[in-house]
Amino acid sequence: MELRIDPSVVAACRSLAARVARPVEEFIAGHSTVAVERSVLRLLGVDGVNAEEIPLPNLLVDSLSPEQRAQGVALAFGRALAETGLEPAALAEEIAAGRTTLAAYDATPAAAARGALAPHVERAMARIAGRREERRAALERAPQGEPPLLYVIVASGNIYEDRTAAVAAAEAGAQIIAVIRSTGQSLLDFVPYGPTTEGFGGTYATQANFAIMREALDVIGEKLGRYIMLTNYASGLCMPEIASMAALERLDMLLNDSMYGILFRDINMKRTFVDQHFSRMLNAYSGIIINTGEDNYLTTADAVEQAPAVLASQFINEEFAHRAGMPDRQIGLGDAYEIDPALQDGFLFQVAQAQLTRQIFPDAPLKYMPPTKHMTGDIFKGHLIDAMFNLTSVMTKQTIHLCGMLTEAIHTPFLGDRALAIENARYVMNTARHFGDEISFKPDGLIETRARDVLRDCRTLLEKVEARGLMDSIAAGVFADVKRPPDGGRGFDGVFARGEGYYNPFEEALRA
Amino acid sequence: MELRIDPSVVAACRSLAARVARPVEEFIAGHSTVAVERSVLRLLGVDGVNAEEIPLPNLLVDSLSPEQRAQGVALAFGRALAETGLEPAALAEEIAAGRTTLAAYDATPAAAARGALAPHVERAMARIAGRREERRAALERAPQGEPPLLYVIVASGNIYEDRTAAVAAAEAGAQIIAVIRSTGQSLLDFVPYGPTTEGFGGTYATQANFAIMREALDVIGEKLGRYIMLTNYASGLCMPEIASMAALERLDMLLNDSMYGILFRDINMKRTFVDQHFSRMLNAYSGIIINTGEDNYLTTADAVEQAPAVLASQFINEEFAHRAGMPDRQIGLGDAYEIDPALQDGFLFQVAQAQLTRQIFPDAPLKYMPPTKHMTGDIFKGHLIDAMFNLTSVMTKQTIHLCGMLTEAIHTPFLGDRALAIENARYVMNTARHFGDEISFKPDGLIETRARDVLRDCRTLLEKVEARGLMDSIAAGVFADVKRPPDGGRGFDGVFARGEGYYNPFEEALRA
Amino acid sequence: MNIGQSGLVKPYGDTLDDGKVQLSFTLPIEWSEAADEAARQLVAKMGFADVQVVEGRRIATGFSFFVVYGSSTQSIDASKIAAPSAKAHAMSMEEIDALLRDRLGRKVRVAGACIGTDAHTVGIDAILNMKGYKGDYGLERYQMFETFNLGSQVAVEEFVRIAKDRQIDALLASQVVTQKGSDVKNFTALVELLEAEDLRDQVVLICGGPRVTNLMAAEMGYDAGFGRGTLPSEVAGFIATRLAERVEKTRGQR
Amino acid sequence: MNIGQSGLVKPYGDTLDDGKVQLSFTLPIEWSEAADEAARQLVAKMGFADVQVVEGRRIATGFSFFVVYGSSTQSIDASKIAAPSAKAHAMSMEEIDALLRDRLGRKVRVAGACIGTDAHTVGIDAILNMKGYKGDYGLERYQMFETFNLGSQVAVEEFVRIAKDRQIDALLASQVVTQKGSDVKNFTALVELLEAEDLRDQVVLICGGPRVTNLMAAEMGYDAGFGRGTLPSEVAGFIATRLAERVEKTRGQR
Ligand code: B12
Ligand code: B12
Ligand SMILES: Cc1ncc(COP(=O)(O)O)c(C=O)c1O
Ligand SMILES: Cc1ncc(COP(=O)(O)O)c(C=O)c1O
Fold this sequence. Notes:
By secondary structure, chain A is of the alpha/beta class.
């Protein structure tokens, strides 16, 4: 079922993406953010909150002087470690309790700081490597089953109800469980703490919640003889911190897009670019598959028109991921089934787009999002649109398959909705399992022509972006029709230039 | 989306079917049945019931002496017409009232009888031709819309509720309305009379009910600017009578299968063969499209195994229809989507079968039946199976598309079920309207191989039938695993040999 | 069971005891915003709280279709539901044959039919025919059953006559068409006729069909009822156990 | 309307007043035949007659899913439902602009936002943006509207401040997330704050979102509420009519 597309156009798009990313990479190399620094602390073992519920990593980073911050929190913290001889967690507690400050050790030489950090960095790296090895072994013992991998969300707001829902979904056939974050968490400039039981439209992403869910899924996975993957959301103001927590708690995937926060959450672009880079370095090392958010272009604007933008975003996400050291097998590029169900031959367009993505990114674990925007309260109709989506996915061999819910327009999924959604996917994917292998497209027909048009328009778009520069293009509203100024948006004050001697021990360790 | 099948095998099957039908045709030519005779009376204008609810056509035919009957009711009735000078309806009333008998006019010469019949025969033929012309004009004024033509059933048991349901369905997009008969009507050796409001699992087929429905559909069709077709069931003990009534009331289609009654209702085979022939002659002249019942093979046995039997039955039905003077465009051969939804790649097999039928019978208005057997009380799953059926139908360009109901396993359709079913078909057929045109099958792949296997096995089956003779084959259980002895089953006593001078004026008129 | 302290259960949406139920129905009124509101009030009158009309639309002149969610205020003590299954006698074909050989010492004579005007034989065939159902062999395949499959549209009188004439041990009646209660009517007619003919206690009387439950069977005076998805061995197991028990009892009485 | 003599309507399956309703729900119990029976009794307790559990199956350890049909015994007098639509002012863009030009003689200042933490701007954008919705132009395209689209996650305080600062005539608040009643909470907070600031009578106050109804809007103290499928011109028509009325009234008072 190959589309005959021009490989030279694909190659041109890739090299345009590289040229688009290069100047941004230079910016990234010269900057850090409060979130990157907080994640350094988290990796070192700093966790917990003070009496006002402020997470210690925030407390510590916010306590840095501008000069200290420019060198990275690690050096200041390392100095204190060296001088106090405390473990990182204990040191953080001391500082939180006001019994000492990071300012107190400025005179300590950088070398001592590095020395004091080294064993903790090593321990963190080993712990992450251990988690990665756990996953490898578990997958070997209890393979996941064949793709499209069925992915469902849980989102009750209460981690314990979510756990019930997740276990039930796994039993029903789900292969991946995503815990959706509470409304607005991506705009918080800190990560909440502890197990949580209240959230709106989702459950807070906290390290404790990660652990609760991981354990439950390990248990049910063992019972079912199928490893169940766990995923959550990174993109937002805390991308690198969530990436660290996910690494430590063996999440298997993370939503992580190089531009989502900018376009869809009005997060400052510099902040996002720096954050995504470090978070992806961590994801790469943790063996975590990232999921990019191209579906968002389609839910906010017309899906037929946005197709070239989706493809362009995929090229850019791929490029940024490569630059963070990520292999193709961890780059879960996004796409979605969002064409108006009333459009004649809309299904053909969807097949064209899905197959085009499959061919252009042959080794990427593509993430295919279900219809959402055109879902209505008519659950019967919704179930059918989901079925056509399921069919497209199995035909075009998508990898990560988000199961559409018949109640998409109504509420975050009920336990029964999830069972019906999984049943839908299983039925369609089984009855048409090899259909894609058994057909080919009419040469120069509707499907092939559509795919070529999208590819051509994507190239034009990337050329435009390359000519203007990525940051300016975003400012000019080239993507998703939204304009974001380079120094506007949330979290800009958390971006800073790396000073002379800036040190992030994990960056080094991860590059090694 | 052509399957590469061997045309010589198709040709072989056709000539086998011809050889299978020939000896049966000889039998048919030498026999008549009480149902054929009753339909002659109906066409002449005899209708109504006596005080005991016995229809006058039955009363009259049952009153014939064996000798009279062997000559056909027309002669006896014609003699009485000639002698009494009454109109047919009035004459029948006189006989019913006991004021005269058919036996009274035996002495009248046959020529006088023929003469007396002639104007009534002519009037009947003209009326049918008029009905046919009405349909032609209506379709020209308000075309039906493109196939697959959406066909739904109404079956409340009450003709007035059925009318409400039919009009609602037409508004929702239905192009054909079928009124399902009450349980067991096919085993009645008479046709009930008048409008009826009680039936089980369906509504009685009566001429009054036909007229009520026809009128309602003409009105709504006019309003919608789309001619709405009406259909009912002929096969059973009253095939030719229902064919006459349908001709007079401008039904557009009739379920009419050359073997259904034998296999699935234990009606005597000779009775059925004779009845189907005359009923199809009438259907041919009325411009009524017949629908054959191959779906029944699939609901009673395994659909994967029965595929060759379905194809064989289609060849036989085609042959019998041709012999009754029917053009291809009126031969609505049946097929159904009944493969177990749990079978891997079952969808591929369905596509293979549907496309095979489409290619072998390119001009037949194929009738595609929905999943029924594997439908369960899980209406959500059922809706999905129906969606895959709808997709198969539009891909393979079926003509008459029975909309599957999500509540198939539960109740005869509710008004709301029908709306959902039509919505399902419309959505799928629109979003994938030209998908079939845009793909081709892998040469020698699963789909093509399956189609070839079915065709090959059909030929083998027809060879077996031809070798044994059709009647003996049915007796031996070759079809649908049921054994029916040639002289067993219901209605055998209504079959008789045509005597010297047998006369059926409509047979002559229809042949002309 | 995920039940609260009380033992009472409620429908479960995404939180224990939230009571969430999905409803859909048609109302014979023209669609409008007021129709949505009528649907909402109607569902509230049915006793649901937090009623949300998530879909309401015209499906034909004078008819509107609705999808509604609400929270049921009702709950039920699931632990107190008495619905003994007739399928409790899980045995293999070999075990059943052995049981009958040991305890009864002769072949069991079974007659099955689709009674009344019902012509849906696939279900009863699935139980009786050699081939069976979903890989589970039918009664004809058992060494210790002699089966008579009378097919479809068998009048109740005919069925009872055959039971008498052929000295049937177990009668299996099937009903698939349920419209307007025709199934209950026919099933009831069968018991009544058997009682009138003093045959009721002579036979193991079983009914089946997709809408049959064991409870409903008991209420109608049957020994057992089997619903959707029944396997032949479940029926065979029931017959064998019941007959074996009768033999015990008769022995005990002597 | 296909209603009986009484004016009362019931759900319609295939016969007037048969009351047929489809339900589905999950129970937190392990599946068994007794679970089916529990589901049946539960639906009977909800007040339905002729309850049929047509599907019951295990969907996870300790959870079963059911599809049920029953006949509702409830009915409603649809003719007495008072749910005036806010969409009754069907006018074209040209007509609306003309009305405003004639009666108001100045541009109407409109501000819209997705309030609270809600970030679902597609709905309010559909009403405000030039492009509009389903071929119906948005308010920005009208000559007589000056619109301020404040985007998403606008705090109620911020919204009221802007209303004051920019002398807004009509406030449009959107809520798409409804979980745990967050929509009603935010909408109510907005009215209360407007009242506290003595601004309520100064503005035409409108809410919208997929679960909003005009009735609910009235109950919360809004001038109008617009639900799923709203077209911009319906909102524009309402604003224009309401403002024109106010002008009349003020004139009348003088
Ligand atoms: C196949 C079928 C037919 C075939 C029947 C062929 C045949 N020889 O049986 C044909 C095409 C002839 C047919 C005709 C009609 N059918 Co029909 N048919 C069906 C269908 C699609 C499947 C039934 C089936 O075979 N199921 C598979 C078997 C294996 O399941 P089962 O019957 O439930 O049996 C299992 C258990 O219930 C149990 N069991 C059953 N009986 C017994 C008995 C005993 C003693 C025991 C222990 C167990 C047991 O064991 C079985 C194995 O697990 C159903 C819809 C559906 N999907 O259910 C409609 C359906 C049953 N038919 C229906 C109707 C209305 C008719 C007609 C009346 C329509 C018409 N007017 O033409 C006719 C008339 C037939 C008549 N006189 O009865 C309706 C009944 C509505 C209702 N609830 O009353 C249904 C539900 C379709 C619908 N939605 O309208 N039908
Ligand atoms: C697109 C979408 C998103 C996009 C939003 C992008 C954007 N910029 O708006 C993204 C991906 C960002 C998103 C995120 C989330 N979403 Co969202 N999303 C949707 C989705 C698929 C479509 C909504 C939509 O755009 N509809 C199309 C518009 C045109 O329709 P509309 O909003 O109804 O608007 C019309 C009318 O209601 C009316 N109207 C609306 N507002 C107003 C205001 C006025 C004044 C007037 C007059 C009229 C009016 O006019 C419009 C035109 O007719 C729905 C599911 C669905 N199919 O409905 C879920 C949905 C709304 N989302 C949901 C959730 C939970 C979330 C998240 C919280 C999930 C998470 N934890 O990550 C986040 C958080 C966002 C937040 N902080 O609010 C839930 C809400 C559940 C509930 N009932 O509470 C839904 C129902 C999905 C689900 N089943 O879980 N989402
Ligand atoms: C890439 C990506 N990250 C994160 C999110 C969720 O972010 P938020 O918590 O802002 O809704 C999404 C949601 O669609 C996404 O696509
Ligand atoms: C060809 C044909 N005729 C008639 C019927 C209906 O006949 P009856 O009334 O016997 O159910 C069917 C039903 O499926 C059929 O396929």
